[in-house]
Amino acid sequence: MDRTLRLSLSPTTEQAESLLETMRQFTHSFNAVCAQGWRLKEGNAYTLHKLTYRNCKSLCPELVSDLHVQARQKAAEAVKSALALARKGKKVSKPQSTLCPPRYNVNSFSVDWQKGVVNLATVAGRQKVAFSVPAYALALVGNRVSTADLVYRPAGRGTNRKGRFTLHVVLKLGDVEFADNGQCLGVDLGVTRPAVTSDGRLHGKKRWREVSKRRFRLKRKLQSNGSKSAKRHLRTLAGRETRFRRDCDHVLSKRILDGITVGTTVVVENLTNIRQRVKATRGEAKRRLHSWSFAQLRWFLDYKAEALGCRVVGVDPRHTSQRCATCGHIYRGNRPSQSRFVCRSCGHRANADINAARSIRDKYLVGWSSPSDAAPSEVASSQPLLA
Fold first, then answer.
1. Which terminus of the chain is more solvent-facing, meaning fewer CB atoms within 10 Å of its CB: N or C?
2. pLDDT of residue 25
3. Between the CA of residue 222 and those of 230, 348, 365, what are the distances in Å?
4. Mean pLDDT for the chain?
5. CB 233 within 8 A of CB 158
C-alpha cells in the first residue's frame, strides 16, 4: 500500500539555486524525449531510451544519469497517454513542460527521519536539505521510502514571496487484508447533495456550494473589469477553488467511511464519461456539472477504504434514481422532484437520494457491479435486499 507524504524543504540560497538548475536540466531532458517520441509516435520507454539517452546526456552533462533515466520514463508516460487520447479522437498536442518535477528513486535520494534531512542528487553534487513534516502526517514518518518528486511553487504576491520547494515522497506501508463480512454501504454522489449513504446519512454542507458560487461571481466580475488591480486579485485567487474542493472531498470521504466495520464493501456509481452523457448545455447547471470532482472523491474513498480493510466497487448508474428500493419498480415519474421519491407501484415514499443510495447497494448485492471494478467474491443471492 503506497502513500504520498509531502515534505516542506528549507534549502539555503545556494541549495535553492542548485535545485532550480536541476529542475531546468531535467525539464530540458524531458522535453527532448517528448519531442522525439511525439515525432515518431513512439511511447515505449525502452525504445525512447535507445533513441535519446546519449543526446540528452550530451546536452545536460551535469545531470546525473539516473535523473536522465527518470526524465525519459516520465516523458514516455506522457507521450503514451497523449497517443492513447489521440486514438480516441481527442484533440491533443505534443507533451511539454516549463518546469517538470524531477523524479528521484532510492539511488538518487535518501531520507534521514531522525535528523530531518533529505539527501538529493543535484547538478552541484549531493545536497543535504532540511525538511519539516506536517503534524497530520507524523504517523507516517519512518516508513520505507520508494520514490519522490521535487516540486517548486514559484514566488507569488501573497505570503509565498520566495518560492517554495516540497518533496512528495512515496512511502511503502503494509497492506491491510480485505476479508468480506457481507456488509455493503451504498453511496449516491450528486451535485446538489455531495453524498448520501444507504444507512440514511446525508453528507456535505450547503455552505460549500455557496462558497463556490460566491467565488465564481467574484472571478467573473474581476475578469470583466480587466484593470491591473483586478488581474492582481485574480492571481491571488488562482488555485483557491481547487484547494477548497480538495479539502471538501477529504472531509466528505472521511465522513462516509466513519463507523463502518472492517470488511465492508462501499458501493458507488461508475460515473466515467458522465459529462458526455448528461445534457447540461448552459447556465449554472453546466458549470456545476463540469466542476464536479467525483473522480477525486472516488480516489480518496479508494485509498482510505483500503487503509481500513474495506474496498470500493462501482455499479452501472442507470435507473438508480428511478428505481424503488422496496419493490424494484422503475419509472421516471417515481421522482417528482429533486428530493422526493414516491413509488407509483407500491407507494413507498423516501428521500430521493437515500432511495438511490439503497438502489446502488442493491445493484451490487445482486451482482450488477461495473465490469471495470472487481466483482464480489460471492454474490449475496441468499441475502435479502435491505430496504
1. N
2. 96
3. 5, 49, 50
4. 86
5. no
